[in-house]
Design goal:
Blueprint: H1 3-14, H2 28-47, H3 51-68, H4 78-96, H5 101-114, H6 123-148, H7 154-171, H8 174-181, H9 188-200, H10 204-217, H11 222-237, H12 241-254, H13 258-270, H14 276-291, H15 296-305, H16 309-318, H17 325-336, H18 344-355, H19 363-380, H20 384-397, H21 402-410
Helix pairs in contact: 1-3, 2-3, 2-4, 3-4, 4-6, 5-6, 5-7, 6-7, 7-8, 8-9, 9-10, 9-11, 10-11, 11-12, 12-13, 14-15, 15-16, 16-17, 18-19
Length: 417
């Protein structure tokens, strides 16, 4: 590497210093460009078999940027991505020219345990550079941290667990990995991680057992839904499609939501394609919606999904005030395409309610959108003159709302415009 190139790289890394007193929004673009330039130049050094030159430069760059982000606004995610890229290039450089294993191990452990929470440390990316000695040192340092960790300090407890789980993963010992993951079964996601490890190791029976255990402990929530997806996939792959469908039916019976219905119908379509499941599911959600108003939106969505548009319309129309605003509009839009005359009065009621909603800052814009749809309904039945008359009456009714009238004037709604 030429001396002038080394000097330029030093200057670039120096630009990654950050005065904590500086405005957190100032100079972010220039800072980002400097970080990318350091990463690009060091990547070229690695390609030129000069990784040993890049290693200390990248360590300094990562350390400086890690500190700098404590005092800069990085809400856009750009600077975080730049740091992640620097970290990736640094790992690549270390794989090509491994530094002293003990020093690298100490740096990684300190970054996780004492750092601000960034950048992410994925131990598998560093394992080749650490080697057996470095990984053993990581394990030793983690044991030290675990012994000294405050049981009430959530970050310390998390950091130790995070590194221990990654060490178990890179060991290649599936039983060890599962055992370490099972030490902290505080969420459905943790069960899911065990299921994935066992499935990848071609141990489906154990994976299915762990999935069932997790769902018994955590029955609902998005993590439970993802765990159930894993279970269903394993059941199908191991030749148990009927059991997979039964799992979906059980979940839907417990919570007859539209998401659970979609999952049920998708699994049915992949396995036996029996229409009886759809009829059963609709019966379940009809009964639930009759007792609990919170399930009414799910019933409407379920009927639409099943192609029961007429029933969805009549069910929704009878209880329109109980539906969320989004779904009212969706239901009217769906009906307008085939029965435009039936939606005019419901649209007018929605427009009136929207104009009077003083808590909604966008009420006038939303009313204009509804008016456009209402105009389409009148146009479809050849009654644009009646729409124009309604529009004039609406103007007169809301003559003391100048902002609304101005928006109405700006919108080409009447037939003579």
């Amino acid at each position: 590497m030429r001396a002038e190139d080394a000097n330029e790289l030093t200057v670039l890394v120096d630009r990654l210093r950050r005065d904590r007193r500086r405005d957190p929004y100032a100079g972010r673009d220039a800072y980002s460009r400097a970080a990318r330039e350091v990463a690009d130049r060091c990547a070229r050094l690695i390609d030129a078999d000069e990784a040993a030159v890049a290693v200390p430069v990248l360590r300094k760059a990562v350390d400086r940027m890690t500190s700098a982000l404590m005092y800069m606004d990085s809400s856009s995610g750009v600077l975080g991505n730049d740091l992640a890229n620097l970290m990736e290039v640094y790992a690549q450089a270390c794989r090509a020219a491994p530094p002293r294993p003990a020093g690298l191990a100490a740096w990684l452990v300190k970054l996780v345990c004492d750092g601000p929470g960034w950048p992410d440390v994925v131990l598998s990316e560093w394992a080749p550079a650490l080697g057996a000695k470095g990984l053993a040192e990581v394990a030793r340092l983690i044991d030290e941290r675990a012994a000294a960790a405050d049981p009430d300090d959530r970050h310390q407890q998390w950091a130790v667990r995070y590194l221990r789980e990654q060490l178990a993963e890179v060991s290649g010992d599936v039983d060890r990995h599962v055992r370490v993951l099972a030490e902290h079964l505080a969420s459905a996601d943790q069960y899911g991680r065990i299921v994935r490890v066992l499935a990848q190791a071609q141990r489906p029976a154990e994976a299915i057992d762990w999935a069932r255990r997790g769902l018994a402990e955590y029955e609902s929530g998005y993590q439970a839904a993802e765990l159930r997806d894993l279970l269903v996939r394993l059941l199908i792959e191991t030749g148990e499609p009927a059991t997979a469908v039964a799992e979906r039916r059980t979940a839907f019976d417990a919570q007859p939501t539209i998401d659970n219905l979609r999952s049920l119908l998708a699994t049915v379509a992949e396995t036996d394609r029996e229409a009886a499941h759809t009829e059963w599911a609709l019966a379940v959600v009809r009964e639930r919606a009759a007792r609990q108003v919170g399930y009414l939106p799910h019933l409407i969505d379920a009927l639409v999904l099943a192609g029961r548009d007429d029933e969805a319309w009549h069910t929704g129309l009878a209880r329109l005030d109980e539906l969320p605003a989004r779904q009212r509009v969706e239901l009217l839009e769906l009906r307008r395409r085939t029965h435009p005359a039936e939606v005019r009065e419901p649209y007018r009621a929605l427009i009136d309610a929207q104009l009077l909603d003083s808590y909604d800052k966008r009420r006038y814009d939303k009313a204009i959108t509804l008016l456009r749809s209402l105009r389409e309904a009148y146009t479809a039945t050849g009654e644009t003159a009646r729409f124009d008359a309604y529009l004039q009456a609406l103007r007169a009714e809301h003559r003391r709302r100048p902002t609304f009238l101005a928006k109405l004037d700006a919108a080409p709604l009447s037939s003579d415009r």
